[in-house]
Amino acid sequence: MTGKPNSHRIRILVVDDHFVVRMGLVASIGTEDDMVVVAEAGDCHQALEQYRRHHPDVVIMDLRMPEADGVATTRLLGRETPPPRVIIFSSFGGDENIRRALEAGAHAYVIKSSPHAELIAAIRSVHAGKFFLPPALAADLAQHMSRPGLSNDELEVLQLIVEGKSNKEIADVLRVSEITVKRRVGNILQKLAVNDRTQAATAAIQRGIVQFT
Fold first, then answer.
1. Does residue 213 lie in a domain region?
2. Spatial separation of the C-alpha atoms in residues 12 and 10, rounded to whole Å
3. How many angstroms separate the CA atoms of 22 and 189, rounded?
């Protein structure tokens, strides 16, 4: 065996529901002589099980998984002793996704399409006790932090807009008047700084404000 002994390497747990993604991460991390993948998991339950068995230094966590997503799983891992340092590794950016991940206890957020070096830098940073957010994601997060947030009522309306429902259909679902829906839609457009419902739906998906599959 070449490189450092396992006891001196950064020990990593990879959590992703796609086998091919996990294999790719194992292979790419394996090229670094100061890191080793000690376990893999495909869902929240396996992640908790493998963490308790191996107690890795760093967990690389997919954002969207069945049953419990990466944010929920990160929150559960944060209750472990000691809690791990988590990197959210996702195909999706969006300031709301990033904000939720950091609030749940993640130490870094990296996009899957990023260069290999960015993930490796994130691993070393969080292992050293630092937070890591690529400049483009940090800028996106900062850009939206000053804007007023959506109320729960407005989030309900926005979710239904994303699902393609008209104002009348939204009113029927929520059991409110169309006038109320129109008022909430107007508030949504203003807060998201967009001009129409289509732009609102696009922004909601891109920023991770609502989920759409």
1. no
2. 6
3. 39
Interhelix angle 70-77/95-104, nearest 10 degrees: 20
Domain of residue 157, residue span: 152-207
Domain co-membership, 172 together with 122: no
Nearest CA-CA partner of 85 in 26, 43, 127: 127
Position 11 scores a pLDDT of 96
For the chain, how many structural domains are there in total? Answer: 2
Judgement on whether residues 62 and 89 belong to the same structural domain of the protein: yes
7 vs 183, more confident:
183
Instruction: Read off the CATH number of the domain in which 84 is found.
Output: 3.40.50.2300
Task: Name the burial class of residue 194, with classes exposed (0-12), middle (13-18) and buried (19+) by CB atoms within 10 angstroms of its CB.
Answer: middle
63 in any annotated domain: yes
Contact 154, 191 (CB under 8 A): yes
What Å distances lie between residue 44 and 76, 86, 132, 185, CA to CA?
9, 13, 23, 36
Q: Give the chain's length.
A: 213
Structure tokens at 49: 């099980």
pTM: predicted TM-score of the whole model, two decimal places = 0.68
Instruction: DSSP for 88-117, please give it.
Output: EEES---HHHHHHHHHHT-SEEEETTS-HH
Tell me: the pLDDT tens digits for 60-69?
A: 999 888 888 8
